[in-house]
Specification:
This protein is an alpha/beta fold and 280 residues long. It has eleven helices and eight strands. It has one domain (4-265): 3-Layer(aba) Sandwich (Rossmann fold). Helices cover 33% and strands 21% of the residues. Helix 6 (160-170) runs parallel beside helix 9 (209-219). Residues 26-32 and 37-42 have low confidence and may be disordered.
Length: 280
């Protein structure tokens, strides 16, 4: 599909478009990218509407979990949201931190940053800030965050190991993260794995579940927990764009599974990690 920089540019362009789409379009596709389904609504996203802090204008239907629900955020905490989009998870996190806390949203798509800032200003949230940046190089100094959250974003990043190193760096000693993401069990068909739309749609960029969890362990995090797991079923009216009838049957009857997992882990008080020198 191209180099890491080409993949990033693909995601940036696609999510610039997604920022302007209707929520119903995003929820009926894979993370808002390509081939909307008429068979199933809410392919990946979960229902935020009952959570304190929920803002309909900030909910683009792009997530694959509810990480803020599991993030154990306390009043006064500093929270960083990686891939903050229009601000949905940031505003839910702010309801937990209260006015004494701070929430920082990071996104590398200017259209998303603008949309999130407009939402924050409209809501009058002075302790929610949005910064343009690449989550492989989080624009935050070290040991700042009590909690890091992210919702269906790391699967879009080519160097996932580096993202976990950055999460380790920005967390305070004893801080923790709760991240919802897409992972695989078994190999995707080549047509899905190589397709640019499915990469931007969170599927082709997903890696094996065990590999994903091993990145977390090797970075130095402890107390790793799977807080929630659910299967993701891509409807046939999306898959037929990539697979012929025989391939579709083989995929449905095979051992490949696509899952959303919400993962929790902590940065130990005595810090060490396996990142390159100077990154932790």
């Amino acid at each position: 599909m191209g180099t890491d920089e080409q993949l990033k540019e693909l995601v940036r362009q696609k999510y610039s478009e997604i920022a302007l789409q209707e929520k119903s379009v995003n929820q009926a596709s894979c993370c808002g990218a390509g081939s909307c389904s008429t068979e199933v609504y809410n392919i990946m996203s979960d229902d935020y509407t009952t959570l304190d802090g929920y803002s309909p204008d900030a909910d683009l239907g792009l997530g694959c979990g509810l990480p803020t629900q599991f993030a154990r955020i306390k009043p006064g905490d500093t929270v960083i949201d990686l891939g903050s989009g229009a601000g949905n998870d940031c505003f839910v996190a702010r309801a937990e931190t209260g006015p004494a806390g701070k929430v920082i949203g990071i996104d590398f798509t200017p259209e998303m940053i603008n949309k999130a800032r407009e939402n924050a200003e409209r809501l009058g949230f002075n302790n929610v800030e949005f910064r343009t940046g690449d989550i492989e190089r989080i624009p935050v100094t070290a040991n700042v965050a009590d909690v890091v959250v992210s919702n269906c974003v790391l699967n879009l990043v080519p160097d996932k190991k580096q993202v976990f190193c950055e999460i380790f760096r920005v967390l305070k000693n004893g801080g923790h993260f709760s991240i919802s993401d897409v992972v695989l069990s078994g190999e995707l068909p080549e047509q899905l794995r190589k397709d640019a739309e499915m990469y931007a749609g969170c599927v082709a960029g997903a890696i094996q579940r065990d590999e994903y969890l091993e990145f977390i362990r090797k970075t130095g995090f402890v107390n790793l927990q799977i807080q929630k797991e659910k299967a993701i079923v891509i409807p046939d009216d999306i898959l037929v764009n990539y697979l012929n009838p025989d391939q579709l049957t083989a995929f449905r009857n095979g051992e490949t599974g696509i899952f959303s997992i919400t993962v929790y882990a902590e940065k130990p008080v005595v810090t060490s990690c396996s990142c390159e020198p100077g990154t932790c």
